[in-house]
Design goal:
single chain, 360 residues, alpha/beta, 12 helices
Length: 360
């Protein structure tokens, strides 16, 4: 295994890994690299469970390198700092999201869009600069290049802030691209009320917009409005409600990872409206031409965010006191949590209490 044979990988770490496509997570002892001159070592406190983790442990996308240690919604405390690192010190509360390395040379890396670098490597199931396989946050310690680490504001709880590192930035970035951060009063639609959708509702409301949740589940209307503050709710398989909603929204954020057609959703947009897709169904989406053409509408994608943008998102969430609604679990409950996540039985994000101290 590449990681075990890399010479400077001398630190023994306890974690949790899947070894085959059954997706079953078991305790796993492995090695991490020594803290390099550009690195920080982080004691992992909490790690969120993302839908991507589920896809990777089961090899749904056919790219998993087993054993896989998932986890890219990581919060913790710095215990060691490399000699070149000036912006962090021991004891800092920090977060690590999806990105572990990029080329640092291309136009995207040089323009604070390194998440679109074509050599991007992820926090787990990637290949680091030294040739080792990256292992994620389902572990008690992490070594990360400081350029891919962000500060967690002091007023945010570390457990409820962890999912911001993936779910939060994934919805924040397209909102920023659609000018929703500093131009309140827009009509914004959020498709899906899961891990991404619930934090999207919180952000859109905090930014001063009128928010409509679009969901296949009528039972989610009360929680969407009363718990999360949504203004309207449309059941997407109710033709009458969808008809009433036509041409009412400026921007729609689609967070759904199940297969669905974009046609009916596009009809809800005003002329010149934008649909931003952040969910990742495994099969191609249906995109009928008429709702696109007759409404002069645009469909765009978005993949997480840059490190600069991730820090901005964390700072904004600190200022507006935005965190995720979580269910805290212990490491021995990971398999049960993954099973429940597959059934969408979570409100709204599982977070693993890695360090066993839920008071930080």
């Amino acid at each position: 295994m590449a990681l075990q044979s890399t010479p400077n990988h001398t630190q023994t770490v306890a974690g949790w890994a899947a070894h085959d496509s059954s997706g079953k997570i078991v305790p796993f002892i492995f090695k991490r690299r020594e803290n390099g001159v550009n690195d920080v070592t982080i004691k992992v406190m909490y790690c969120g469970i993302c839908h991507t983790d589920l896809h990777h442990v089961k090899n749904d996308w056919g790219i998993t390198m087993y054993p896989v240690v998932p986890g890219h919604e990581i919060t913790g405390v710095i215990t060691k700092v490399g000699s070149n690192v000036k912006n962090f010190k021991i004891g800092n509360r920090v977060g690590v999201g999806c990105l572990a390395a990029s080329c640092l040379e291309c136009e995207f890396c040089k323009n604070s869009q390194e998440n679109y670098c074509d050599q991007i490597q992820f926090t787990y199931n990637g290949i680091f600069w030294d040739g080792s396989i990256t292992y994620g946050g389902y572990s008690n310690m992490l070594v990360a290049d400081h350029r891919y680490v962000v500060r967690v504001p002091d007023n945010l709880r570390m457990d409820a802030a962890a999912p911001l590192l993936c779910a939060g930035i994934t919805v924040f970035s397209p909102m920023k691209d659609c000018q929703l951060l500093d131009s309140p009063g827009k009509k914004v639609g959020i498709v899906g009320l899961g891990g991404l959708g619930h934090v999207a509702v919180k952000m859109a409301k905090a930014f001063g917009h009128h928010v409509t949740v679009i969901s296949t589940s009528p039972s989610k209307e009360i929680e969407a409005k009363q718990r999360l503050g949504a203004d309207c709710f449309i059941v997407s398989n109710n033709d009458e409600q969808m008809q009433r909603g036509k041409r009412t929204l400026d921007v729609i954020l689609d967070t759904v990872s199940a297969h669905h057609s974009l046609g009916p959703i596009l009809e809800l947009l005003k002329v010149n409206g934008t649909l931003a897709v952040v969910g990742a169904p495994s099969r191609p989406m249906e995109l009928p031409s008429f709702p696109l053409i007759f409404g002069k509408r645009a469909v765009r994608g978005s993949m997480t965010g840059s490190m600069e943008e991730t820090q901005e998102m964390m700072d904004v969430c600190g200022k507006l006191n935005i965190t995720c609604d979580i269910e805290l679990i212990q490491p021995d409950q990971i398999n049960e949590a993954l099973d429940r996540l597959a059934r969408n039985d979570v409100r709204y994000r599982f977070v693993i209490d890695i360090a066993g101290n839920s008071k930080l």
